[in-house]
Design goal:
mainly alpha
Length: 105
């Protein structure tokens, strides 16, 4: 089972409209145990890719976790990022659009 990253990749020079991107995917596994095994494999691969990405010093990577409050973003981030070296990351909280507009006025 492999997720096609091209489905989630923003192209250079193209305008990104987050509302047009998929917000859910079909289940990949039949059980929680299968998901845990898959997660462990992906976390290990992500850790290896982070070292390679950091060493190349050519590109940046932006991950966006979008969802309503209590949508599970914290848990997803905690699981996905568990194999990542925090020294190689910066985390920013995005303000809601109406809050940004008020601050600009």
């Amino acid at each position: 089972m492999k997720i096609n990253s091209k489905d989630f990749r923003a192209r250079p020079g193209k305008r990104v409209t987050v509302a047009e991107w998929p917000t859910s995917v079909k289940p990949f596994c039949d059980s929680k145990k299968e998901y845990q095994k898959l997660l462990a494999q992906h976390v290990e691969e992500l850790s290896s890719l982070q070292r390679l990405h950091y060493a190349s010093n050519r590109y940046a990577l932006l991950l966006i976790f979008q969802g309503m409050d209590a949508a599970g973003k914290d848990g997803a981030i905690r699981h996905v990022m568990s194999g990542i070296n925090p020294q190689g990351c910066q985390v920013f909280r995005a303000l809601r659009r109406n809050l940004m507009n008020r601050k600009q006025a």
